[in-house]
Every structure is written in structure tokens, then in C-alpha cells.
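[Q] Does anyone have a clean C-alpha cell version of this?
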Amino acid sequence: MRSNLSKRYKKLLEASNENKPEIIDDVIKKVKRNCTAKFNESIDVSCLLNLKQKKEEISLRTLVNLPNGNGKKVKVAVLCEENKIKEAKDSGAEIAGFDNLVNDITNGKINFDKLIATPATMSKMGKLGKILGPKGLMPNPKFGTVTNDIKTSVKAIKNGQIEIKNDKDGNIAVSIGKKSFSDAKLKENYDAFMNTLLKEKPTGIKGNFILSAYLTSTMGVSYQLKL
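[A] Here you go.
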């Protein structure tokens, strides 16, 4: 399989650190140096969490506020009453409305990355749940996407608030920025992500919560991080 790899990628593999975890500051420099693609590659962190217990399987789902955002433009839609459409648009939402938005979603026309809904519109969520749920777009009061404070919610999302959750194997990943970000900004975002994970450690977990962590770029190789 490796014989089909490009010369560029083979060189990156030779420089990887599969058996030698390193501190985040050094790894950021190496990952950025390996960003040789002709576009602004994303810098991503992936972790394996200790979530499997004898009696039950625990999951983690929460919000992370990246102080510098992750460089990705997030298109926000707001499902709201007629008199709140202007507020939603003024807050930075690209799409806002009620019947028109419900119809678009029902017809599979979903051209947004995040959906905020006011409590008054939640009665319509029943029939939309089967469409939005599998796509991870269902508004949730726990994550601030069911709210009357539209301005605060839109601003938080636009400024780098992201939702994270683990997969069935306990892996969790997030983009912490772009190649064009300074090392300091990537480090700040990394710290915010890791600190959030540690704060969200379930009470029933014994031993280390974060079992391993790796940093990589879109077209690069992974580097193991020293925890």
C-alpha cells in the first residue's frame, strides 16, 4: 500500500515521530513545516479518551471556545419568529426565518453549518428532528442553540465556539486552526481544547482520561504529543 504514496508524503513519513512523543510547541513547528500542499491546510488534534468502563460506556459531548477560532467560516441559520429575523441577520446569521426555513429543511435544502432556534419555534422541531438529528444540526438548549438571546449565540459560534463529541471508540478530534495561524494562536487553541477535555472528565473514570493525543495537518502525517 505504501508504494502508492507520493514522494512528498513518503518524506513526511520519514520525519514522523511514531515512537517518540514530543511537547506541543515542538510538534506545532514540525506539522506546519510539513504543510507543503498548495492550500491553507487545517491543523487538527485527535485524542483517544478513556471512556470504556466495566459497567457502562460513557460519552462526552460539550462545547469548546477556541480563543482564536479555527479559521473555518461557519454559516449560521436561525429559526425564529418574524419579529426576530432582523435581529438574527444583524447579529451575523446568514439565514433567518420561520416557514421558509422549515420548508427548506423539510425539502432537504440545508445550506448552513449551524442552526439556532428560539424556544417558540421548537414545536416545529418534531418533524425536523429526523432530518437534522443524523446531521448533528439539531438545536439543543444545553449547547446554547435553543435561546432567545440570538445575538450572543450567533456571536459565540462566529468567534470560535465549537461542539465536540467522541465516536464509539472513544476518539475525539477538532481542528485548532490553519497553517497560516501563528504558533502562539495554535497553542492557545490547543490549550483551550485540552483544558476543556480535562474539565469534562466524567466522575466515574479512573486513571488517565486522555490516553493519547496526536497533531496533524490536512495533508500531513501525525505526530504524537507528550501529555
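[Q] Thanks! Anything notable?
[A] Residues 14 and 178 are 23 Å apart (CA to CA).
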